[in-house]
Structures are given as structure tokens and as C-alpha cells.
Amino acid sequence: MTAAAQQPTQPQVKVNVLNVCSPSAEEKEAIVSALTRIPKQPLFSPDFEIDRGRTSLQERPGFLQPGESGQDSSESATATWVRIRREFSFQAMFSTVQYSFSHDSKNMMETLVFPKI
Q: What is d(CA 37, CA 34) in angstroms, rounded to the nearest whole number?
């Protein structure tokens, strides 16, 4: 066996971060395209998860940059958050949907994730 055959392949992960407050024309097209693929009346399974918590903010993630009016601080702080996850039925294009909302002393962030099957 070759070394490549022995290595398990990792699934390709693509992450798109869009500024929905003041999107560019290209981002508007991506938002519209993504929203048209979401069913208007989704078929959810009966199970769901709701999590909440408080997290220490030691360092800021590199992909999150403050907007024009946003402030960035080097001081450590805490953020409170809530996350809701629902599973789609087996007929759906997406496996789950996850909504999260976090809040710290300077920022609020909403995230909506639809992992594609």
C-alpha cells in the first residue's frame, strides 16, 4: 500500500464569512444564492439542542475583523452566548441548521450555519 492510500481523506470544508450589514454586490449575490436553497417550510426531526454559556475572550479570532464602527481591544473579557441546533429530515439538502448569538461588552454577533450534505 502507498502512504496516500493509508491516509484517511479529510472532507473539504468551505467557510464563507459575509458582512450582511453592508454587503458588497458580490456578497449580495452569495446571500441570495444561499437563501434560495433553504426550504421555505423545512422538515425538521423532532430532536433539537439548545446550549448557552459564558466564555473568556483571551484572544480574538483572526477571521473576525471589526467593522468601520467596531472597536478592537486587547483586554480580556467575557462573552455570553446561546446556540440552537436543529436537524433536518433525511430528505433535506442540509444536514442541520445552527443559529448562535454571542454578546460581549463591545460586540454582538449572530451566526447562521447550514452544513450541506
A: 6
Residues composing the chain: 117
The H-or-E segment that residue 24 falls in is none
Dist. CA 20–CA 28, nearest whole Å: 8
Question: Position of cell 446550549?
Answer: 51
Q: Which of 39, 46, 29, 16 is nearest to 94 (CA)?
A: 39
77: phi then psi, degrees, rounded to nearest 5 = -150, -175
For 8-48, what is each residue's pLDDT tens digit? 677 777 776 777 778 889 888 888 887 888 777 888 888 89
CB atoms within 10 A of CB 67: 10
Q: Residues 25, 61, 65, 107: is their CA dihedral positive or negative?
A: positive
Task: Quick: pLDDT tens for 36-85.
Answer: 887 778 888 888 999 999 988 776 555 555 555 555 555 568 899 999 99
Give the position of cell 433535506: 92
**pLDDT for residue 100 is more than 90:** yes
